[in-house]
Amino acid sequence: MERQRILIVEDSPTMRQLLVFALRRLRGVEIVEAQDGMDGLRKLSSDRFDLALIDINMPVMDGLKLIGLMRGEESLKNVPVVVITTEGAAQDRERAMRLGANEYLTKPIQANRVLEVARSLLERGGARPTDLPT
Amino acid sequence: MSDEQANRDARGEEFLQAFRRGMDFTRELLHENERLRRRLAEFEDQQQNAARSPHEWEKLRGELLGRIRGLEREYASMRERLDEVEHENRAFADRYLEIEQENNNLANLYVASYQLHSTLDVDEVIRIITEIVINLIGADRFAIYVIDPRRQELRAVAAEGLELGRVPPCRLGEGRIGSAVASDTTQAWDPDPVSAGELDLEQPLVCIPLRVEQQPIGGIAIFRLLQQKQGFSTLDHELFNVLAGHAATAIFAARLYSQSERKLSTIQGFLDLLTQ
Prior knowledge:
The complex is a heterodimer. In chain A, 42% of the residues lie in helices and 24% in strands. Chain A contains five helices and seven strands, in the order E-H-E-E-H-E-H-E-H-E-H-E. The C terminus of chain A is likely disordered. The chains are: A alpha/beta, B alpha+beta. At the A-B interface, helix 1 of A face helix 2 and helix 3 of B.
């Protein structure tokens, strides 16, 4: 069976490292990092991904633009998306959900919540990742 | 004797043999039938005797009751074992959650200290401190101060959710921020219910002093938390400690590096001038 792949699109190295730490507990999953929306789009276009975690505020190309482009692209429109926002940015979050994001996470990020959301979307998308007991 | 006669005699002999075998088989069947009839009669007698004799009946009843009691004891023991296993299981599940939480906390602390020491650029260190305070602690409004040693004054070098120019400097040892930095102890205060909504830049919720050994480097003052953040957890206090030690060291190291780079460049300039 092919390994499931998760893309983290986030400009903050601290957040990326935190998300990697959390998602690493889903065994049998490959995690790829992108540092902005453009880098994320490049990686999404060249490889298969089963889930994308996307920050909204990023340089070069923000998360909203990236989600919009993904949902307009036949090969990417079904990739589940989790947006990462701050509680104050409710409008951005609503916009992201309208654009087609599946879930959202608010800062400060809780590793358990990241796992729960990722696990649920990966399961919906197909094979269940081998993970620690729920 | 003609051939025809001989054939008739042979067929007759075959028929007689088949008839004899049938007769033996019938005899065996009758014998077996008789044996089964006798066995059935014996069982009927035993049953009737047991029903008639209270002693036999009591014996049978005692045996059955003994067996039931044995099964009940076995059931109770298994039930007890199941309860024990369930209890053990719950204890393991609780322990697992605790370890998971501890693991998450350690991951946060590791990420914070790793990122703080990942660069020797002062601006980058300040940016990383800002990221940690937003993403790991969940602060909405805060300022990072660095000490001006000549004036003994803390000056804001970065602010989130605030206009940097509006953040007033603080005298070391004075006010909440100055006193916390001078005392080398992270201090937290309950939000002032009177000034709820307004932001008093001299009344933070928490102030984390940044010091290297005994030398104050600066401080972090948090004025407001993100909406969903109700208060400070144990992890937040651990993060305050990490920031107090590692952020100060990171700023100190980055400054030293920057100074040494400048000095090296000056010396190199001199050497180039002399060798020309």
